[in-house]
Amino acid sequence: MNALIHLRATRNNALKICKKLDLDQLNLIPESFNNNLVWSLGHILVTQQLLCYRLSGTPCLVSDELIGRYRKGSKPEGVIGRDEIDYIEEMLLSSIDQMKADLAAQRFGHYKPYATSYGIELASIEDAIAFNGIHEARHLGTMLALRKLV
């Protein structure tokens, strides 16, 4: 599926931005921003889990606790440590492989329609995967801007 190839490229670009920075830079929230680079990484992971897994009735690959920290409307509540960053970075790529396997095994159930804040109605796992690519590319753009300010 081409969308998963695009997803991997977007996530590799996001990871490349963060790999060059130290913990303080990753956690810095520049003036006029609500979040930081680490939150952006966690957010794209969590959003993909919610859009693709939860809305199709399939268990998410990450904990509800992690989802709570990075879901839409959240913001960093303190310094995010190296262990959590490493976990998020690892899950960003391994979750793509798992989603590919889950798609092949037809593990995604009946999709609960969802209207995004972007103005797009998602009605299937295919819709969710396609929209997720748009969402992640948008956040990659924000990350590129954040990188220049840290």
Structural key phrases:
single chain; 150 residues; 2 strands
> How many discrete domains?
1
Helix/strand order, N-terminal first: HHHHHEEH
**How many DSSP helices?**
6
> Which residues sit in consecutive blocks of at least 5 with pLDDT less than 50?
none
> Helicity, in percent?
55-70%
Superfamily (CATH H level) name: dinb family like domain
Q: Distance between termini?
A: 35 Å
Cross-sheet strand order for the largest sheet: 1-2
CATH-defined architecture: Up-down Bundle
Mean of residue pLDDT?
96
Query: What's the total count of β strands?
Result: 2
Q: Judging from the principal axes of the Cα atoms, what is the shape?
A: globular
**How much beta, percentage-wise?**
under 5%
Rg calculated over all Cα atoms: 15 Å
Structural class: mainly alpha
Question: What does it look like?
Answer:
The protein is mainly alpha-helical. It has a single domain, classed as Four Helix Bundle (Hemerythrin (Met), subunit A), CATH 1.20.120.450. It contains six helices and two strands, in the order αααααββα. The chain has helices spanning about 1-20, 25, 35-55, 65-70, 80-105, 125-150, and strands at about 115, 120. The protein has a two-stranded antiparallel sheet with strand order 1-2. β1 (about 115) and β2 (about 120) form a beta hairpin. α3 (about 35-55) runs parallel beside α5 (about 80-105). The model has no long low-confidence stretch (mean pLDDT about 95).
